[in-house]
Amino acid sequence: MLYQQYPSVLLENAVSEFSKLPGIGRKSALRLVLHLLKQNEEEVELFGNTLIRLKKEIKHCKVCHNIADTDICDICSNTNRDAGIVCVVENIKDVMSIENTQQYKGLYHVLGGIISPMDGIGPADLEIDSLVKRVEKGIVSEIILALSPTMEGDTTNFYIFRKIASFPIKITTIARGISIGDELEYADEVTLGRSIVNRVQFTDSYNKKH
After folding, report:
1. Phi/psi at 92 (nearest 5 deg)?
2. Which fold has domain 69-209?
3. How far apart are CA 50 and CA 172, in angstroms?
4. Whole-angstrom Cα distance, residue 51 to residue 14?
5. Helical spans, DSSP H, in the chain
6. Per-residue pLDDT tens over the stretch 155-182
7. Where are the domains of the chain?
8. Topology at the third CATH level for domain 9-57
9. pTM summary value
């Protein structure tokens, strides 16, 4: 067994936990843990308790599935937003990215992922049925399909299109100013904002051409 160069098992355990975070290697994890050790006990307790409260008390909006402090998120409860337009996104980070553009004033629907057979993710694993139910209520006049322009994103777009195409609503998709294969969170705000404003009609033929 190789000797782990940690003077403390407690330190090693903490580093192991931090290194489980995305993009955090063991060197970065060690740096973070040592930083925490330099803080006073009250600050470390506040840090830990904040994470515990986050996990225990965070909610998902009953309407759009965005994260929220209450049952209905601030966006869905905002009467100044256009409830007739719903932007369908993959995850919560995409909501934040679009909101940062300040170009969109409608509501959202967070799928919680995209269809990816390779990863074992099918339509039943996503919030697609709840989207259809929102459309069935007759309040929605336009659905914007704002998924990342990847093969999986296009597959999910097409599946949703087939599920709601029979309803008397407008179905659009973000303009392809974002490069194929890119994820929304990595698009700059100007490009993303323009792709929302300049959205185009989504059709069966559009999906097949792209």
Report:
1. -65, -35
2. Dna Topoisomerase Vi A Subunit; Chain: A, domain 2 (3.40.1360)
3. 40
4. 15
5. 9-18, 26-38, 41-57, 92-101, 129-136, 151-164, 189-197, 204-209
6. 999 999 999 999 999 999 987 655 433 4
7. 9-57, 69-209
8. Helicase, Ruva Protein; domain 3 (1.10.8)
9. 0.82
